[in-house]
Predict the 3D structure of the following.
Amino acid sequence: MATKLKVKCIDNTGIAFEFLKFGQVYEAEDRGNEFYYIFLTHERGIEGWYKDRFKLVPEPEAPEAPPAKIVSDGGSTEYYKLPQGASELGDLIEYKNMNFNQGNIFKAAYRLGEKDGNTVEYDLRKIIFFAQRELNRVTKGTANV
């Protein structure tokens, strides 16, 4: 059975390559012998060429699927459990892969009004500021406000 793939021409000698160009990528079939069968758009159709004159082009990796949402009944769920060894907020921020905006929101909400010189209102405004930046980043692809 033939396997469909993409190959790149790496032979720049020009020998017997009247239709193939160095560096060009072609659709091909691997039928398990010494040739790749290249699909050409000319009157001769499919032609076989020695495999050593081509390099396989790797298939692009499929994008990672977003993580599945965790079903909750309102009680304790997996996303509330602390990772092993976590001892401060920085550990949690790293564990959850929070970006700068998310980390600032998390820290300000955690310390709400407890930092010397800052009021609850200050921390709430900070949360709003970074939440707006994050919303802009998510919806417009930029964090500028």
